[in-house]
Amino acid sequence: MNTSTTQLEPQALQRLLLNRFAMAQGTYAMVLLLLTLAIVTGHGRVSLDVLLLGAIPLMLSQLVFFLLLRSGRNLRLRDPGMIEAQVLVALFWQTVLLGCLDDAARSTLLAFYVPILLFGLFQLSPRAFARCAAFAFVGFVGLEWSDASFQLQFAAEPPFLQLATLSALLFWLGLFGRHVNAMRQRMRQRRHALVAHQNTLRGMMRQLEDQASTDELTGLCNRRHFLRLAEHELTNLPAQAQYGLALIDLDHFKRINDRYGHAAGDRVLQTFATLAQACLREGDVLARYGGEEFVLLLPNVNLDQISICCERLREAFAAAEPLGLSLGGLSLSIGMTRLQHGDDLDHALQRADQALYRAKHNGRNRCEASWEPSDARADRRSASS
Ligand SMILES: Nc1nc2c(ncn2[C@@H]2O[C@H](COP(=O)(O)OP(=O)(O)OP(=O)(O)O)[C@@H](O)[C@H]2O)c(=O)[nH]1
């Protein structure tokens, strides 16, 4: 079966098959017209009435194909295009119709074996094509033989030239078909190689994107990615919606590094990232903002929920015991604010930073909030006094 057609969606495939069927009907119409012309010009061995009568079973055979295509029953077949069947039926009618002509017209219309076989050349397997070519040849020999047997054709010579021409045509078509098939095979291999290449590149791109947006140590998204994401969320924030924004800073982190070493500090950062993610909902975004500072975006929350969530993080970290380390007294400070429609991200981050500063100033291990711009202004005033 032809793989290029079977890869299509059923609807697209049916459209293609119906178009192809319409093309075949055009070819039938052309042959019938030429036949009429041959009969009218005195090359027929039957009258026009017989030809018209003979066209009825021909049309009925095409109706069967049409109904199969229209009803979609062809899709249940191994070859939904019914190409081999259509080619064999067309070859049969071509031979029958040639039987209605005298020698001269027959030689001319012999050429119509070519478009019929070409119809299958690009779609059929080499074996199926060889079957069709053999059917055409045997059919034509049978026609000539029955003519000779029933002495309908009073040719002085057996139709060597016609048979030789037909053999040459079929042989050439066979060779051409093999060539086309080999080319298609090569193109298919190249396409597969290209697709494989494309997939590798896509994978690498994804990896690069991940690397560019992820913090290597904690696996959280990094500052750049967070800011892009938060900016996007803020731009699309509906008028009534409210997001929570929090800056989280681990307390006295320098001491941990100094006392237990940088590797221990790293492990504490990783521990925080893991436990914080376990405390958050699916849509919440936690990112490493830099050093021992993290940033949190909480979609669709009220002020109480922001506070509760941040308290939960604070308590969870206070109870944490990073694997293999007995540090004791881990704590963090959090500055919270909210994001509303029309807010500016930089201003919101400044508010959260002011609140964080207050949390540090008031003794650490606590959550403080600057919900409104006025809170942040008050924070700045008290910081400078
Ligand atoms: N282990 C480790 N340490 C880091 C990393 N990034 C930054 N640090 C350290 O984090 C420490 C931050 O120290 P400070 O800014 O003084 O803050 P702090 O000691 O936590 O004090 P407060 O924030 O005021 O409580 C510095 O010693 C940095 O070297 C990291 O990736 N791994």
From TrEMBL:
Gene3D superfamilies linked: 3.30.70.270
Reaction equation(s) it catalyzes: 2 GTP = 3',3'-c-di-GMP + 2 diphosphate
Signal peptide residue numbers: none
One GO-annotated biological process of the protein: cell adhesion involved in single-species biofilm formation
A GO CC annotation given for this chain: plasma membrane
InterPro entries in alphabetical order: Diguanylate_Cyclase (IPR050469), GGDEF_dom (IPR000160), Nucleotide_cyclase (IPR029787), Rev_trsase/Diguanyl_cyclase (IPR043128)
Pfam hit, one: GGDEF
Compartment list: Cell inner membrane
GO molecular function: diguanylate cyclase activity
Cofactor: Mg(2+)
Swiss-Prot/TrEMBL keywords: Membrane, Transmembrane, Transmembrane helix
Annotated transmembrane regions: 21-44, 50-69, 104-122, 160-181
Statement: the UniProt record of this protein carries the keyword Transmembrane: yes
Superkingdom to which the source organism belongs: Bacteria
Main location: membrane
EC number: 2.7.7.65
Domain GGDEF, first and last residues per copy: 241-372
PANTHER family linked to this entry: DIGUANYLATE CYCLASE DGCM-RELATED, REGULATORY COMPONENTS OF SENSORY TRANSDUCTION SYSTEM
Name of the protein this chain belongs to: diguanylate cyclase
